[in-house]
Design brief:
By secondary structure, the chain is of the alpha+beta class. Helix content is 48%, strand content 19%.
Length: 233
Amino acid sequence: MSSPRTYVKRLLIGSLFTVIFMVLTPPVLLALLFIVPHPISGDFPVFLWRISEEKELQLRVALLGGTMIVALFSFFVWMAKEIIKDSAPHQRRRYLSATAIYTSLLFYGFAIGGMRLVGPQYGRCEFYNSPTTLDAGRKVFNGVTYDIQVCGSAPRPQDGDNDRLQLTVRDERGEMLARRHYSVNWEAGTSFHEPLQYDKDAVVISNAFGEDIRIAIPPSRFDWIRARVPFLD
């Protein structure tokens, strides 16, 4: 690899083939699963998507995640071989470090895109915000008004009525200050879907399948950052 230009060219070519592999492989695998006759597929746990939307989502995430890991690992190995084969010894460490950083960025970018593609779609905010459900909406803390919105994924009964929720805190101008995700269950008793609790300077969220969540009001600068960086919220 005689020059940075050659390195960048190979990086872009490898990226192109990686993207093509990642785009084409999951739909092909899913199509094969969907056309397998039910008497055959019904005997295997991987085919539980037929009876549960939750299982279908898990299958999609597993396929996408597995494809991404295989594709990016193969990309890095191919680039490393090209670097070792064609680069001078004093260049290899620099090129390998750059490739590792680039591969990590690709992984993060693909993970964000994949979760947005197969993740829950949040809606029915008015239902969740109602005082008779989770009691969100416009709230006043120390004389300052904040807009607290809760939207959910509207589960089906066969999914066990587990509902993934997204809570956002915005100021009066509509700027998002904080965001969290948590779960409730509408059929397991009121302790699994308690309304939001409001302290003098915090919102307390009762999470049915994890630790309760506390958001300070006003939210911190770190809350502001977490709301904008996927996987941190």
